[in-house]
Write a structure and sequence with these properties.
The complex is a heterodimer of chains A (290) and B (265). Chain A is an alpha/beta fold and 290 residues long. Chain A folds into three domains: 1-88 and 167-184 and 198-236, 3-Layer(aba) Sandwich (Rossmann fold), CATH 3.40.50; 100-166, no CATH class; 249-290. Chain A is 38% helix and 21% strand. Chain A has eleven helices and ten strands. In chain A, strands 6-7-8-3-9-10 form a six-stranded mixed beta sheet, with helices on both faces. Chain A has a four-stranded antiparallel beta sheet with strand order 2-1-4-5. Chain B has 265 residues and is of the alpha/beta class. In chain B, strand 9 (205-210) and strand 10 (213-218) form a beta hairpin. In chain B, helix 3 packs across helix 4 (110-123) and helix 3 packs parallel to helix 5. Chain B starts with a strand and ends with a helix. Classes of the chains: A alpha/beta (290), B alpha/beta (265). The interface between A and B is large, with 41 and 38 residues.
């Protein structure tokens, strides 16, 4: 490939200190600038650990046994200064309560917190805060206390405080698991817009249909290892995706059950998305003269 | 146990009207789902049923009896509540102690207690984690602890606030088994959820809330089928979308199994 990868992992192994098994093992992964990558896996498969690693929290922040190489922009992640890291990569956590500073009285201050710590000039700071609030749809709550927000609003605040720092690589660890369908759609569309504006996006999600529809590439984890990676619209109906506890979309489930009940031969590939499923069932029904 | 929510309103001390004239009947043994945007009052309503909040106006009846003057300790025998964030309800050193806390406080006899705890741990897949510290487990496992501690109290009504948030496929499958078991035990279930696929599959009745009010109540299949009218800007459950495009005669399947049955009929 012509462009050098923005993130490169080679044979990465990591065991948390005191952990009895590797949280990540033999992870080799190359991510191109501007890609949007989905990370899927059963809980405990290593999704969050991989996010922490890519965000530069391993091995510096989480103690443990690390081997292999992990680079962002050709720099060893472990050697990047903590105050430089936000200019390269931002992480939005699964639980917004862990993300908030617990030191700010308003939404606005919360979004300002990271920028203040980086010593960003005031003029630029104000602009970035407004942008981040707008993109996450929480401008009208700027003067409210973060702790009076509902779960979903709080999660959007957590995202805003990361967006404000404007890192080229953004990592989302199940960012929508507590959002309502509208909030989820808003956040996911924010993420898609960030992707279109050139950010490299890595997103761990349990929402398989979204991953299948919108990511360029999906990395499936099982017990800390990469089980399979590739085009989500091709690989997400593989049997091992189901057996590893990741599961299939209901579209895949329905087609597998249909084939089983009608004892039809199995096609090359089971459908994953709605459009693929419609095509599949129309073809099947046509074949059976129904 | 039947629940009558009789024109209740609730105002938080800061004056925010979280519930406005909510009226809803939940027949005994029914599974009702509450859906709506964050901040629409779902959790406030659930807290009123649990007796954690008292309606400013109106009243809630359980099997015809108002809970207005009922003590929390007495309501605890009737209504179980699984919080959205498990860490809001977990405070013991081991999984077993955590799950045992509720039954113990309800004054169950030793034998019954042990039996209920055992059953709850088995149902939530935690029988091998009895001596584990809850915070040595993942968030989703802690969620299962919260569920187990509520199940162990064996209340007639169980409220789940976002039970499947953050759960993976395996845990979702487990959750469906738990719902089925509760159905077999003739429990009345209230589930607050943003997972439309789950709501469609599991609930008998669906109540849509907006801005502190119930705006629509009915059969989930019918409400989801008329999705655009009822929930502008929401995505319909996968089986509804697939049914609409593939099945004839306006049939709509609730589950994957039902979809395939409709198709090969």
């Amino acid at each position: 490939m012509s462009t050098p990868p923005i993130i490169q992992l080679d044979e990465v192994h990591f065991t948390y200190s005191g952990g009895s098994h590797s949280a990540l093992s033999a992870i080799t992964l190359s991510i191109q600038p501007g890609e949007i990558i989905g990370i899927i896996g059963a809980n405990g498969a290593g999704k969050s650990t991989l996010c922490y690693l890519l965000a530069g929290l391993i091995p510096s922040f989480f103690n443990g046994n690390f081997s292999g190489t992990a680079t962002i922009n050709d720099k060893e992640i472990a050697n990047i200064d903590a105050n430089k890291l936000p200019y390269l990569v931002g992480l939005v956590l699964q639980n917004s309560r862990l993300q908030l500073s617990h030191m700010c009285n308003t939404v606005y201050e919360e979004v300002a917190f990271g920028l203040e710590n980086l010593g960003v000039p005031r003029e630029i700071m104000l602009k970035k805060i407004d942008q981040a609030l707008k993109m996450t749809g929480i401008s009208h709550m700027a003067e409210r206390s973060p702790y009076t927000l509902s779960g979903g609003e709080q999660q959007r605040l957590a995202i805003a405080s990361i967006l404000a720092m404007d890192s080229p690589v953004l990592i989302f660890d199940e960012p929508t698991s507590l959002l309502d369908p509208v909030g989820r759609r808003e956040v996911l569309s924010v993420i898609m817009n960030l992707s279109k504006s050139g950010h490299t996006i890595i997103i761990a999600e349990n929402h398989l249909e979204w991953i299948a529809e919108y990511t360029d590439r999906v990395v499936a984890l099982e017990a800390g290892k990469i089980l399979v990676q590739g085009d989500p619209k091709e690989i997400m109906s593989l049997p091992e995706i189901q057996s590893s506890g990741i599961g299939w979309t209901r579209f895949t489930q329905a087609s597998a059950l249909y084939l089983e009940k009608t004892k039809s031969g199995s096609p090359n590939r089971l459908p994953i998305t709605l459009e693929q499923a419609i095509h599949f069932f129309q073809t099947e029904q046509g074949n059976h003269g129904n | 146990m039947e629940i009558n929510i009789n024109h209740i309103s609730f105002q938080y001390p800061n004056g925010y009207p979280a519930l406005r004239d909510v009226h809803l009947n939940i027949p005994s043994e029914q599974h009702i789902a509450l859906i709506g945007h964050n901040g629409c009052g779902k959790t406030t309503l659930a807290r009123c049923i649990k007796g954690l909040l008292h309606p400013t106006n109106g009243e809630i009846l359980l099997d015809g009896k108002s809970i207005r003057n009922e003590k929390i300790s007495s309501l605890a025998h009737k209504v179980g509540f699984v919080f959205q964030h498990p860490d809001d309800q977990i405070f013991h050193q081991t999984v077993y102690q955590e799950v045992a806390f509720g039954p113990k406080n309800l004054g169950m006899s030793g034998e019954v207690q042990v039996e209920k705890i055992k059953e709850a741990l088995a149902l939530t897949g935690l029988e091998n984690e009895k001596t584990t510290h809850p915070y040595d487990l993942s968030l989703s496992a802690r969620k299962r602890i919260a569920i187990a501690s509520t199940l162990a109290m064996d209340t007639d009504i169980i409220i789940f606030d976002e039970p499947t948030a953050g759960m993976d496929h395996k845990e979702l499958t487990l959750m469906k088994v738990i719902f089925q078991e509760l159905r077999n035990k003739k429990k009345t279930i209230i589930t607050i959820s943003h997972d439309m696929d789950l709501v469609l599959e599991q609930s008998d009745q669906l109540a849509i809330m907006a801005a502190g009010q119930i705006v629509k109540v009915g059969d989930p299949v019918i409400l989801f089928r008329d999705m655009e009218e009822n929930f502008s800007e929401m995505v319909a459950p996968q089986m509804v979308r697939l049914s609409q495009r593939v099945l004839k005669n306006n049939k709509t399947a609730k589950t994957v199994d039902q979809f395939v049955d409709f198709l090969i009929q």
